[in-house]
Amino acid sequence: CFAEYFRIFPAAERQEKCAYGDSACFVKVANEIMARAREGYPELGLPVFDPLKIAQMNVEQLNGPVNIKINMQNIVCKGLSGVRFSRIDGFVKDFDKAKMELKFVYPRLELYGPYKLQGQILILPVNGNGLTNMTFTGNDVTMRILTKKVEKDGKFYLQVAKSKHDFETSR
Fold it and tell me: Quick one: which of 46, 109, 103, 45 has its CA closest to 75?
């Protein structure tokens, strides 16, 4: 499996490889990869992902005085090349049902595309749809991921089974 990968992407042999559970190494390598988001990393088979096109995204805030659900489709996300990881935990050898946690910051993230919104602010109902243009600055993110192992063509892959993102933004 790895030998075939290196034959197709020879530069992958030169990319630092991390031992399972080596959080500091994963942080270093992830930051190196994210810095190349605008031009991609063809040596590793990674396409350009800044901007990133997202087919569908749902955002829910269901507690407190603001209860809203936003459904967005065909979103364009800009700013991922600015992401800097500070912690990556949970990359273990047996990645079936692994629990991972990633902490990162990004200075600016922009989302563009159509949306539908339903909810309530205090006692007032809110509904709407249209084109969104969201800009977030000064963002701290904690992402928790539950993985599962899937088999395809005799090879095993990691798939995200469930994820939760906690955001703190200055704007």
Answer: 109
CA–CA distance, 149 with 18 (Å, rounded to integer)? 20
pTM of the shown model: 0.72
Cα–Cα distance list, 26 to 21, 89, 92 (Å): 8, 8, 12
Q: Is 27 exposed, middle or buried (CB count within 10 Å of its CB: 0-12, 13-18, 19+)? A: buried
Tokens in use for 158?
Answer: 């990691």
C-alpha 66 chain-centroid distance:
25
SS3 content of the chain, % helix, strand, coil (to 5): 15, 55, 25
Tell me the per-residue pLDDT of 55-82, one tens digit each, with 9 for 90 and over. 998 888 888 898 999 999 999 999 988 8
The pair of structure tokens assigned to 155 is 């090879």
CA angle 83, 87, 91 (to 5 degrees): 110
Cis peptide before 107 (omega within 30 of 0): no
Beta bridge partners of 131: 114
